[in-house]
Design goal:
The chain has 4 helices and 2 strands; from the N terminus they run E-H-H-H-H-E. With about 140 residues, the protein is mainly alpha-helical. Keywords: Membrane, Transmembrane, Transmembrane helix.
Length: about 140
């Protein structure tokens, strides 16, 4: 009996790459959370009257500053989501950092938009788990 081997036909496991559905989920979730943050940023920048909170009821900044903050965080999170889907390890580490940053930011933004902030904090916690649960060498499926 002979075994026929084709050049370059090694499986992902043989090359040391393990695929993970969690990372695919995390990449998709990072894209969704990033989009949510971009929407929150644009709303804060374009419509000052949308959030029904007085000046003294939000932590530290005014809505224009929060708008720029959420816009920047959202854009970075979308880039991170694309990096996670491409299997980049830096994107996994940055994804955890920016998920924590977004969760803390939404905690500060809780008075302005409570239901949206609680939902986004929950998504950030789920994103952190999805990024940290798979093995170190795994890639998105």
């Amino acid at each position: 009996m002979t075994t026929k081997m084709t050049h370059g036909s090694t499986s992902a496991r043989a090359r040391g790459m393990v695929t993970s559905g969690w990372l695919t989920f995390a990449g998709t979730l990072a894209l969704v959370v990033g989009t949510f943050n971009i929407i929150a940023g644009l709303v804060a920048l374009l419509d000052d009257e949308y959030y029904l909170v007085g000046q003294n009821q939000i932590l530290i900044f005014d809505f224009t500053t929060w708008g720029w903050f959420w816009l920047a965080v959202g854009i970075v999170q979308i880039a991170i989501g694309a990096g996670i889907m491409a299997g980049r390890m830096w994107a996994r580490a940055a994804g955890v950092v920016f998920a924590v940053l977004a969760a803390i930011g939404h905690l500060a933004f809780l008075q302005a938009f409570p239901i949206w902030s609680v939902l986004t904090i929950a998504l950030c916690v789920l994103l952190i788990y999805a990024l940290t649960a798979p093995p170190a060498g795994s890639r998105a499926a």
